Amino acid sequence: MPDKIVGNDFGPPKAGPKDGLQGGSPHKIVGNGFGPPKAGLHIEIDGKSHPVKAGENLLQAILSLGLDLPYFCWHPAMGSVGACRQCGVIQFKDANDAQGRVVMACMTPVAEGMRISLQGPDAKAFRAGILELLMTNHPHDCPVCEEGGECHLQDMTVMTGHTVRQYRGLKRTHRNQDLGPFINHEMNRCIACYRCVRYYQDYCGGDDLQVFASHNHVYFGRQEDGVLENEFSGNLVEVCPTGVFTDKTFSRHYSRKWDLQTAPSVCVHCGIGCNTSPGERYGSLRRIVNRYHGEINGYFLCDRGRFGYGFVNGPARLYQARSAETGPLDVSTAENRLRAMLEDAKGIVGIGSPRASLEANFALRERVGAERFHAGIGDAEHGCLRTLLDLVRNLPLHLVSLREAERADAVLILGEDPTQTAPRLALALRQAVRNRALAIADELGIPHWQDAAVREAAQAEKSPLFIASPAPTRLDDIAARTCRASPRTIARLGFAVAHGICPEAPAVMGLTPEHEALAAEIAQALTSAERPLIVAGTGCLSEDVLRAVGQIAAALAAARPGRATAVHFAVPECNSLGLALMDAQSLAHAAHTIESGEADTLLILENDLYRRADRTTVDALLTRARQVIVIDHTLHATAERAHLVLPAASFAETEGTLVSSEGRAQRFFAAMQPAGDSRDGWRWLGPWPCLDDLTRALADSLPVFQQITACAPGAAFRIAGQKIPRQPHRYSGRTAMLADIRIHEPKQPEDTDSALAFSMEGAANDHPPALNPFVWAPGWNSNQAVGKFQDEAGGHLSGGDPGIRLIGDGAGTGLPWSVPPETEASIADALRLVPLHHIFGSDETSMHSSAVAERAPHPYVALNPEDAARLGLAEGEEVELAPDVWLPVKCLPGLAAGIAGVPAGLPDLPVPVTAWQSWKPNKPGDETS
Amino acid sequence: MDKPLTRNIKSDGSTVTLAEYLASGGYEGLKKTLAEFAPLDVQQRVKDSGLRGRGGAGFPTGLKWSFVPMGEDAPRTKYLVVNGDEMEPGAFKDRLLLEGDPHQLIEGVVIAAYAIQANIAYVFLRGEYRLAAARLRQAIAEAEAQGLLGEGILGSGFSLDLRLHTSAGRYICGEETALLNSLEGKRANPRAKPPFPQVSGLFGKPTIVNNVETLCNLPHILRNGVEWYKGLSRTGEPGTKIYGVSGRVRSPGAWELPMGTTAREIIEEHAGGMRDGYRLKGYLPGGASTDFLLPEHLDIPMDYGSIGKAGSRLGTGTMILLDDKTCPVQMVLNLERFFAQESCGWCTPCRDGLPWTVSLLEGLIEGRGRPEDLATLERLCGLLGPGNTFCALAPGAMEPLQSALKYFRADFERYLQPQTTRGGMYA
């Protein structure tokens, strides 16, 4: 074991304690030269010298300087292809050349002393001419187009100065397609920038969005109507510079961007912690868009995160307190009832939630005491998270951000299907395998940004990605090798890899020759890589797999002295890791406390226990408890059995801190007032006047959270004495929107918990990144305005990417080598159950969105076709998974033998796979055991 | 007069068999090359010969080759690709060579592949050239059987696998990088340069794309030497050229003539002059994507430099004539329709500018023109010009239009007159 880790492969963690507190990002104004200082070259733009970074293209350099230059096909995450010709500038040969020639900025590398003109008449005329050509077929339907008001095409049209149409011909028209529940398709608006297919195919690996036909008939769509299959299709809404692809869920309750009240938020649908910007109008949440974070999500969200917001105003939303006996309660009665029940309690068991904030959980913990505070997750998951934290605390592990993951040049995934459990991570890994392509490009002298050329030169060459998982994954298409095995065997393979890397790590006995060879190949690839990365998580609920990751990490650190091993653990929920860091008790302990009579009252925060343990256990627990109190925003089976239900604010209506799987604490803010009588979960629980007091109390009482107060400026933060408005300065209808209810304009609600205001008045500029509700800059109304808030095009947010990393900085010094697990005993005629995760289906809250629910699978039991044949089961045949739970058999080629896959977390499948259970399939007529 | 390229071509249209080709001294150039010259020597000889690409751009062949990485460390596999996608309106010279003497091409291919040490070669053939495809397939089989293709050619250490690929039919496939994409099974969109195909070409490997006629020159240059080759020409640009004429002449066709033969000689002596009742009004010297020249230019030698100086391009050397009974506006519209249809749709100026051009010309002809339309057309010629577009298709498409606007402006303006006063100038 190494003694001291001095670094990791990805440089020092980007976010220090001061991040997010600095003054932030002035809007860069054309020509002010207010760019970040850069080492490198100088170029002359319209007679003025500017510093630029060597290796960039002109467009990147110009935008990074804060200057404006219109573009369409270029995207900071996808590089240049030179298709749209919109970013033309005049380049002069030398100091004497007065004429110059048009070059495309995106395709021209910067060079020392280069002279160009952005503003010369020829340059401007060229760009206006290109825009005019783009517009010949554009329908100009902005008033009825949902992109209107945040349309890059509108912005660029204004920027080029093209105002008068000379084209008098007919416009070409297309037939649109039904692309499923997420995305609208309106091809007539298309300006053929090719971004959609480049994003969908090249960036995401999708193949069901294509470009068809040629000349000005090019058509971007599917081969036939149908659901866009890729899990990241929603980003087309933001990738498309105009209104071809728009958010179908938003259409149902559409509002202009300028009429949305938004807040900086964090996605609550998995543990990655993507930054989002939820938008509200008329008291309901209308949509989610990406909020750029330079270390995490960058420009892209997954479809679960973008379209899973329906629960906030969904049919199961709790707006009112209610009592099991008397029905709905008003707020003061509810408060009194709560007080009385808690006073009457003979001991209270508090059950927290991995989908509630640190603050809400801490408020519960304070209310019930640390010994009576329980995590409210399944016991298997609880064990996994404890093991995971043990590794992170004690081994030289560096928990990588997604940006760092994208730089990995060899990746091993153990037991996880990231696309389903931590989707945005999967998209990052898809970029990581391109590092080989970038290396080939380097050899050939092709700049990384020259996207098509890099792909052409590299062809199918990829950095190695190894996947060992129970079932096929959505990254198999880019994997060098895949291995399908049970979690135990996956763990054994992992231990063998560790032994292959460092002979001191114990060898694994009895591996098959294939697994021996694979382990050796993986060990070789990880050892010879510059930036190896191990990805695992709680997906298959196996502590053995996690211990194997620890072993590999330790082995790599031993083989590469002084360097921590890069790891990312996928965790299921938005605050799984934060809750784990609070060292809460297990659910079994809660059951024991109630069972033994030590306590008679259950106080459950934002949790449906039926998702955490099997029905019998939960039924027993809820029956045994004399009083059950549930605080939540959504009605569920547990709340239905509670004596008192108190409505909580959803993430869109409250503030708090979440800890992502990167170990990054991030603050999210309310986009809107709590609906109905709901209030912040923690407000039901304690005496704290405002969130800052609670956050401070948490920071003071648990050392690991010491720095979380610095995640974002507190409620007292002001810019020139003003709060930050959640509404854009063009917000309309404020005085009229409630006129049908009452004639006078209500006072804007006060927000005592944050420096944000429910208002359009306030400080317009210089928002700290953690407090920036939306991006807008003069002339930039679309999300591409984010360029004005970055230190360089596609870089970090000016002022620092928000969040504070709490753990996983590679400081652990070591654990003794683990002993590899034995081969599992075979169980005659039985299979072992493993959870199979679904991006659409396995997450609780997103399934309240009809669009997401439409994409979810029906419950099934998956069997390897050979196992199914051996057991005499046919596709679609019903088998009994648990007493009275009958599910159809699904033959899943590629599923490891000897296991049965059950979809995790489906709402209509009340049997959570809680552990490594064995299961013997019963058919109708069989004697049930 | 020496006509090395077409010397074997039979007037009855039948092809030359391997036996006939060998009997006429065929594959001697290859034998000599493999026996006497190192690859870099071949490159140097071709460079010295001054051979320029016959596909239209006229880039020096030897220079093009010299950018291919050579030696032990060079990436493998390298490719040689034959551009046989002859789709330029008015061009049919490669067809003559492909159908008439396929072994000459094969010999040229082996020499070129040897020069750059490529071990796989593709012939990318226009899909409609079915006869050429059949004859080429036959010839490849004959050559393989005789050890002229395949492993260890003629007992040397050099191997070449030659494969025929017939195109699905897009004009843009004649653009060498679009051709490579098409050959890889992708959309036939051109690629950005740099990187050039010599560095990252077919399947990302070093690749040379040469035109059919270019390659057919090689056996003769290698066999007879540089001085002989230079002596074939009438001007400073060496070799012969296959010139073609289409339009209202007595006998349209293609003829191999010394480089630098004048258009007047080609039209009057070889094409038999204009048909009775027709006068020459202008001509596109190098095919559809070149600027018009006028009868006053007829005595300019048809070589790259001289035609360039006159404001047009030699292109493929297959000229299209405009006579005095044909409306130049309608002729240009016909061409622009072709180019608009054949745009791959990748870059804005070409994709959206050409249909606008067509729409303006149609409007003009149908009497819906406005005086400012001519200025718009001129503006489009600039906007779709060289450097502004992703590849050369749109600038080429603009060449006949911009020169027609210059030389035949009255014909455009006539359409702006009320129909009754326009007069019936053309049939």
Automatic annotation (TrEMBL), chain A:
GO molecular function: 2 iron, 2 sulfur cluster binding; 4 iron, 4 sulfur cluster binding; metal ion binding; NADH dehydrogenase (ubiquinone) activity; NADH dehydrogenase activity; quinone binding
Transmembrane segments: none
InterPro entries, sorted: 2Fe-2S_ferredoxin-like_sf, 2Fe-2S_ferredoxin-type, Asp_de-COase-like_dom_sf, Mopterin_OxRdtase, Mopterin_OxRdtase_4Fe-4S_dom, NADH_UbQ_OxRdtase_75kDa_su_CS, NADH_UbQ_OxRdtase_ferredoxin, NADH_UbQ_OxRdtase_Gsu
Enzymatic reactions: a quinone + NADH + 5 H(+)(in) = a quinol + NAD(+) + 4 H(+)(out)
Single biological process term from Gene Ontology: ATP synthesis coupled electron transport
One cellular component term from this protein's GO annotations in UniProt: membrane
Tagged with keyword RNA-binding: no
2Fe-2S ferredoxin-type domain segment(s): 39-122
Region (Disordered): 1-29
Keywords linked to the UniProt accession: 2Fe-2S, 4Fe-4S, Iron, Iron-sulfur, Metal-binding, NAD, Quinone, Translocase, Ubiquinone
4Fe-4S His(Cys)3-ligated-type domain sequence ranges: 122-161
EC number(s) given by UniProt: 7.1.1.-
Annotated function: NDH-1 shuttles electrons from NADH, via FMN and iron-sulfur (Fe-S) centers, to quinones in the respiratory chain. Couples the redox reaction to proton translocation (for every two electrons transferred, four hydrogen ions are translocated across the cytoplasmic membrane), and thus conserves the redox energy in a proton gradient.
PANTHER family in UniProt: NADH-QUINONE OXIDOREDUCTASE SUBUNIT G, RESPIRATORY NITRATE REDUCTASE
Family stated for the protein in its record: Belongs to the complex I 75 kDa subunit family.
Protein name: NADH-quinone oxidoreductase
UniProtKB/TrEMBL annotation, chain B:
Protein family: Belongs to the complex I 51 kDa subunit family.
NCBIfam families: nuoF_fam, PRK13596.1
MF GO annotations: 4 iron, 4 sulfur cluster binding; FMN binding; metal ion binding; NAD binding; NADH dehydrogenase (ubiquinone) activity; quinone binding
Matching InterPro entries: NADH-UbQ_OxRdtase_51kDa_CS, NADH-UbQ_OxRdtase_suF, Nuo51_FMN-bd, Nuo51_FMN-bd_sf, Nuop51_4Fe4S-bd, Nuop51_4Fe4S-bd_sf, Soluble_ligand-bd
Name of protein: NADH-quinone oxidoreductase subunit F
UniProt keyword annotation of Plastid present: no
EC numbers for this chain: 7.1.1.-
Role description: NDH-1 shuttles electrons from NADH, via FMN and iron-sulfur (Fe-S) centers, to quinones in the respiratory chain.
SMART domains named among the record's database cross-references: NADH_4Fe-4S (SM00928)
Enzyme superclass (EC): translocase
Cofactors (names): [4Fe-4S] cluster; FMN
UniProt cross-references to Pfam families, sorted A to Z: Complex1_51K, NADH_4Fe-4S, SLBB
UniProt cross-references to SUPFAM superfamilies, sorted A to Z: Nqo1 FMN-binding domain-like, Nqo1 middle domain-like, Nqo1C-terminal domain-like
Gene3D superfamilies registered for this protein in UniProt: 3.10.20.600, 6.10.250.1450, NADH-ubiquinone oxidoreductase 51kDa subunit, NADH-ubiquinone oxidoreductase 51kDa subunit, iron-sulphur binding domain
Organism domain of life: Bacteria
Residue span(s) of domain NADH-ubiquinone oxidoreductase 51kDa subunit iron-sulphur binding: 329-374
Catalytic reaction(s) noted: a quinone + NADH + 5 H(+)(in) = a quinol + NAD(+) + 4 H(+)(out)
Quaternary structure, from the entry: Composed of 13 different subunits. Subunits NuoCD, E, F, and G constitute the peripheral sector of the complex.
Keyword field: 4Fe-4S, Flavoprotein, FMN, Iron, Iron-sulfur, Metal-binding, NAD, Quinone, Translocase
